[in-house]
Design goal:
heterodimer, A: alpha+beta, Sulfite Oxidase, Chain A, domain 2, 2 domains, five-stranded mixed β-sheet, five-stranded antiparallel β-sheet, 6 helices, 10 strands, about 30% helix, elongated, B: mainly alpha, two-stranded antiparallel ribbon, 10 helices
Chain lengths: ~260, ~240
């Protein structure tokens, strides 16, 4: 008697567990499809850290569905000295451009845009000037507060007319670094192309002539020495397909942490 | 053949000399997923510190500003912090999900109320003093005779679960430029990004200290039986009954 009861209970348990597992697998597959269509999967979602990267990126994208603003500070809180990490390139065209004061330098913007264009520093300076006093933390743990002056990336993107197919903004730099932003960060009001720091033109060590500033991510996302911007619908065929050079060095593509 | 269901209680009575708390399945499951995540957090936390073993107070801090203190560790610029951070966040997700499962199930099953809330009578100074004295004198009768957790255990578990862990997580959030863009109060509460980082480090040390004491007490109370209890839910290997 108790055996029959025990068996029927275990059979029922087996069926419920099986159903729950099936529902779980189907739920995960659906969740992945939905997440993909809403752009909640980062390009470096593979490998052993993929689970953590995806959870962090998807959660933060949902949390920041509106344009949440990084904290801004007063002038009195600006750091007295700013450490530098990453030296200016000593090879390629950069040293000559630096010594000529970036006379012939232009920033091409191409890819999925209506009017591929290129901008000189003076042209960018003629656009509406924006500034922000924000905190920048390095991936290693140190940080500083500085005032950045430049043009809002979204202003430039609106000028060149971004195609509705575009999903990512890829940036290249003269030191070989390349990275990319999703549209949420590219159009964020605190995402700048900066040409000045604390009132002075950018020095070479801080990324002259033009540096990206992404206020809601760690410092390595603010790429220095910009050389080109291109808009793409997928990061699969850009570089090694992980959205940035950072994953090759062990750092994640999304640095909102 | 009949009365199969009574045998565990018979076994319990027979084992009364060696009474050990019997954690339910969810407590045991989350205990071990949490152990795994905690190990990942400590190892990766150390890796992250290696890339900048200096601590500051306030909003900012870097090699050009005087640190509050520095750890006597080699600075490994661009060293292991890459995988360190990835492991830290992956482990943090496992820790938070395990913790949520533990807390929700603990509230629903009244585990916290029954096993961890100290009785009002135990919260008197004399009762706590007696418990401390028992510990200091290594009085095993005072420590191991109870099937339930004693008042010191209850207070330290509650403090770890509901005070130290939440503040460790909060100070971690306070270092995220994207999370603080949504919830600026998280970093303002600590008074600055670098203060939050320093407090995160101190709280992590407190958690490691708790782990050391926790394991030491397990060893003193009987390592094998306590480990078996946390793995199988029974103090020792289940005895064959007849």
């Amino acid at each position: 008697m108790s055996n029959i009861l025990g068996n029927s209970i275990s059979r029922r348990k087996l069926i419920t567990t099986g159903l729950a597992a099936a529902a779980g697998v189907a739920g995960l597959a659906t969740a992945e499809r939905v997440a993909k269509s809403y752009g909640l999967i980062p390009p470096d979602d593979g490998g052993i850290w993929g689970v953590g990267e995806t959870l962090t990126y998807a959660t933060q994208r949902m949390l920041m569905a509106h344009h949440s603003m990084a904290r801004e500070f007063g002038r009195s809180e600006i750091s007295k000295a700013i450490p530098v990490s990453g030296d200016p390139p000593t090879k390629g065209p950069y040293p000559e451009m630096l010594s000529s004061g970036f006379k012939g330098w232009r920033l091409p913007i191409d890819g999925l845009v209506a009017h591929p264009s290129s901008f000189s520093v003076d042209q960018l300076k003629a656009m509406p000037v924006r500034s922000q006093i924000t905190h920048q933390a390095c991936e290693e743990g140190w940080s500083f507060i500085a005032e950045w002056h430049g043009v809002q990336l979204s202003d430039v993107l609106n000028l060149v007319g971004v195609s509705s197919k575009a999903k990512f903004v890829v940036v290249y730099a003269y030191d070989g670094v390349w990275d990319s932003l999703d549209l949420a960060d590219a159009y964020h009001p605190q995402t700048f192309l900066t040409y000045a720091l604390n009132g002075d033109d950018l020095s070479a060590s801080h990324g002259a002539p033009l540096r990206l500033r992404v206020a809601r991510q760690l410092g390595y996302k603010s790429v220095k020495f910009l050389s080109r911007i291109t808009l793409v619908d997928s990061l699969k065929n850009v570089g090694d397909g992980k959205g940035s050079i950072s994953p090759a060095y062990g750092y994640s593509w999304y640095a909102g942490i | 053949m009949a009365d199969l269901t009574y045998i565990p209680e018979v076994a319990l009575q027979a084992d009364e000399a060696q009474t050990v708390p019997r954690p339910p399945l969810l407590v045991r499951f989350t205990h071990w997923t949490f152990t795994l995540s905690f190990f990942g957090l400590v190892v990766s936390g150390f890796a992250i510190i290696l890339s900048h073993p200096h601590f500051y107070w306030g909003e900012t801090g870097n090699i050009l500003t005087p640190p509050l203190f520095s750890l006597p560790l080699p600075t490994m610029l661009g060293g292991p912090s890459g995988w360190g951070r990835s492991l830290h966040f992956q482990s943090a997700w496992l820790a938070v999900l395990s913790g949520l499962l533990y807390i929700v199930s603990g509230v629903l099953s009244k585990h916290f109320r029954r096993e961890l809330m100290p009785a009002a009578s135990d919260l008197s100074w004399s009762s706590i003093r007696n418990c401390v004295a028992d510990h200091l004198h290594f009085k095993r009768s005072g420590l191991a005779a109870e099937e339930h957790y004693n008042v010191l255990q209850r207070l330290s578990y509650l403090g770890i679960v509901f005070v130290v862990f939440p503040f460790t997580i909060l100070s971690g959030f306070a270092m995220s430029p994207s999370i603080t863009s949504v919830f600026p109060w998280m970093v303002e509460f600590f008074g600055g990004h670098q203060t939050a980082r320093t407090i995160h480090f101190f709280l992590a040390n407190l958690l490691v200290l708790f782990l050391v004491v926790h394991v030491a007490m397990i060893v003193l109370a009987g390592f094998t039986s306590r480990m078996m209890a946390m793995i199988t839910g029974r103090p020792a290997a289940p005895k064959e009954t007849r």
